[in-house]
């Protein structure tokens, strides 16, 4: 697996996408913004992979910073959950099958589960063999610089995120406005898997003690 992060100056944030090599399949998970696609394809080329080599594209959800890059991907089998159809621009709909399941296996035996919080069609993707879980923006470090490596324990990021969820849990207006209970249900779904690497939509890729981290967040449920 490869993680590609591009710094988006307009948002002051890293936008993430991932390449998962599985036997003869080359799977792109999320693709960044359309205007940043040249960075992604340049990075792939350095790995000996052209955009025409990608066999499948899977979107964790339908926001432009996760699907825009497939505009220039050529012929590709693309997948997204049908609940995010309304987010997909007309010019990209022919590249995406609205067929990601609510809970079942999908491309390359990735396990897919509907989370439905960040967007109606947000999903998690899990590769059991490597214990990698892609959660899109259900959990992410938007607007955060890296405190260490791209793939890192991320102690500082974890503590800041715990504080964010703690503050959210104590603000009744924010709980209702941003559907805190649905966020918690998503965490419970994530925590059903044995996770070694947590690949989010923005910022550091967390490694190690992921289930402990999720359990800490779940303590804010009440």
Going across the major beta sheet, what is the strand order? 7-8-9-10-12-13-11
**N-to-C series of helices and strands:** EEEHEHEEEEEEEHHHEEH
Helix content: 10-25%
Oligomer designation: single chain
Number of helices: 6
Number of domains: 1
CATH superfamily: Ribonuclease Z/Hydroxyacylglutathione hydrolase-like
Q: Hey, roughly how much beta strand do the residues contain?
A: 25-35%
**Alpha carbon gap, first and last residue:** 37 Å
Largest sheet: 7 strands, mixed
- Kindly identify the CATH topology: Metallo-beta-lactamase, Chain A
CATH architecture title: 4-Layer Sandwich
Radius of gyration from the alpha-carbon trace, in angstroms: 17 Å
Choose one word for the global shape: globular
Q: Structural class per helix/strand content?
A: alpha/beta
Could you describe the 3D structure shown?
- This protein has helices at 37-46, 64-67, 155-169, 172-177, 180-190, 210-218; strands spanning 2-8, 13-22, 25-29, 56-58, 77-79, 96-97, 103-105, 111-114, 123-127, 132-136, 151-152, 197-200, 205-207.
- It has 222 residues and is an alpha/beta fold.
- The protein has a single domain (2-218), classed as 4-Layer Sandwich (Metallo-beta-lactamase, Chain A), CATH 3.60.15.
- The strands form two sheets. A seven-stranded mixed sheet has the order 7-8-9-10-12-13-11, covered by helices on one side. Strands 1-2-3-4-5-6 form a six-stranded mixed sheet, with helices on one face.
- A hairpin with a 4-residue loop joins strand 12 (197-200) and strand 13.
- The longest helix has 15 residues, at 155-169.
- The termini are far apart.
- The mean pLDDT is 95.
